[in-house]
Amino acid sequence: MEKNVKIALIVTLILFLTLGTASGAIPELIFNQVPYNYTGYASVPALSNNTGSLGGVCGIQGKGEKFNFYIIMPGAENYEDPLCYTKDGLKGNGTIQNLHVTYKTVLALLNHDFRTAMFQTMFTGKFNMSCAAWTGYGNFSNNGTSFPGSFKIDGPDTDFEGTFKLTQENNRIAIVSDYICYPHANKTPENTRHVNQTYYV
Q1: C or N: which end of the chain has fewer Cβ atoms within 10 Å?
Q2: With the CA atoms of 167, 168, 172 and 176 taken in that order, what torsion angle do they form, in degrees rounded to the nearest 10?
Q3: Phi/psi at 19 (nearest 5 deg)?
């Protein structure tokens, strides 16, 4: 009898997950009630042989579809223009939309592998950010295979716009960016610079 109860519970759980995922009930009933808090190390590699790399902390906190995030590079304010970076670092907030939990999400969560769960869950989202005197915004999406996004930054002296892609590299998340930068509100071919840069969190 006990075995039959276990089987019935497992079948019920599978049906709930299948129906909930298909109908969106899981995101509405469960995901929106779940708080999360992740902190880690962030690094920016040297842009040239004459410059050093930067390291610091990053974090994201939220509940359900709403989240806040930050990146702080201690000491970087001593080498950066105060219009571009201060000791308060980069801060932002965002919203997760169109969440679709997959069976791979559930398996990863059962194994306490939250990073894999994030990459296996399908969703779209948008965010705003600010740092010193500049502001920015962007969007992101994940179809379970590819995790791309785009962004635009309006700075006091320089504007940036481009794309990024999140990938897993061993125990790190790599943010592969491809963007252009140009004098504020003055995007012309002759004063636009193209940059490919990878950051790690």
Answers
A1: N
A2: -20
A3: -70, -40
